[in-house]
């Protein structure tokens, strides 16, 4: 698999007080397995994390005709789409018309992966049966209608969750301001362990009931930054070493 293009765009809250923050993603191509990839970066820095938390109380935006998604995720994805991603994806689809599209990300990147996969299908660029979605530590991304549409549209969509990871519990299901509910879409894959090689996992068919990770009350930020027995805070800086 080879890198095709890297995108780094301003996805800041428009507040004149806060400094600029960036969202990033890459596209890649595997000509052997006939795969195109969109991979989205997680939250970087306390400022961007603060923006996300504050925006939990701002509201949601309509996503085509299939429901509402969290406004911060919507705006961040649109910034990437308008920042060159649309042209890149259309070019790749034109050049490799029979390739699958794999969409992935961690944390904020997981939410953007959910939105991105949904966007390219609603835009008519890819058919759902050619798209695979695989996320790690995904926060709740949209309302019930969006979650229902997503899980009824994508046959292959998995949300991997590590142990007591706190992020899949936010935004809260019951919003303080508008009293709207946020829901995960299927299918959760829960690792109730350190995720080392050979670890067991549980497939959780109900999208957002009191099962699997939703049973946990002792939540952990450390579990959010460690997936597949790897510290994601330093993995890239170390050159993505193979175990």
Q: Sheet bearing the most strands, described?
A: 8 strands, mixed
Number of domains: 1
Helix content: 25-40%
Q: How many strands?
A: 12
Per CATH, the superfamily is: Alpha/Beta hydrolase fold, catalytic domain
How are the strands of the biggest sheet laid out side by side? 1-2-3-6-7-8-9-10
N-C termini distance: 19 Å
Integer-rounded radius of gyration? 17 Å
Structural commentary:
- With about 240 residues, the protein is an alpha/beta fold.
- The protein has a single domain (about 1-235), classed as Alpha/Beta hydrolase fold, catalytic domain (Rossmann fold, 3-Layer(aba) Sandwich), CATH 3.40.50.1820.
- It contains six helices and twelve strands.
- The chain has helices at about 45-55, 70-95, 110-120, 145-155, 220-225, 230-235, and strands spanning about 1-10, 20-30, 35-40, 60, 70, 100-105, 130-135, 155-160, 190, 200-205, 225, 230.
- It has an eight-stranded mixed β-sheet with strand order 1-2-3-6-7-8-9-10, with helices on one face. A two-stranded antiparallel sheet has the order 4-5.
- The chain is globular.
- The model has no long low-confidence stretch (mean pLDDT about 90).
Features:
single chain, 243 residues, alpha/beta, Rossmann fold, eight-stranded mixed β-sheet, two-stranded antiparallel ribbon, 6 helices, 28% helix, globular
């Amino acid at each position: 698999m080879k890198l095709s293009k890297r995108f780094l765009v301003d996805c800041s809250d428009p507040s004149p007080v806060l400094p600029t923050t960036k969202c990033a993603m890459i596209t890649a191509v595997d000509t052997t397995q006939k795969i195109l990839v969109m991979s989205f970066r997680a939250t970087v820095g306390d400022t961007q994390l603060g923006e996300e938390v504050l925006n939990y109380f701002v509201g949601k935006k309509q996503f085509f005709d299939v429901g509402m998604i969290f406004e911060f995720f919507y705006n961040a994805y649109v910034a990437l789409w308008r920042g060159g991603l649309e042209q890149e994806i259309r070019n790749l689809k034109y050049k490799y018309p029979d390739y699958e599209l794999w969409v992935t990300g961690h944390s904020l990147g997981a939410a953007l992966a959910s939105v991105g996969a949904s966007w390219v299908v609603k835009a008519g660029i890819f058919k759902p049966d050619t798209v695979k979605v695989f996320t790690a530590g995904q926060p709740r991304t949209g309302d019930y209608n969006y979650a229902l549409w997503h899980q009824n549209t994508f046959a292959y969509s998995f949300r991997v969750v590590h142990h007591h990871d706190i992020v899949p519990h936010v935004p809260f299901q019951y919003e303080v301001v508008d009293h709207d509910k946020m829901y995960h879409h299927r299918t959760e894959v829960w690792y109730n362990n350190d995720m080392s090689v050979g670890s067991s996992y549980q497939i959780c068919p109900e999208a957002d009931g009191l099962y699997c990770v939703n049973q946990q009350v002792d939540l952990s930020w450390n579990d959010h930054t460690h997936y597949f027995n790897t510290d994601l805070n330093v993995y890239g800086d170390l050159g993505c070493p193979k175990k």
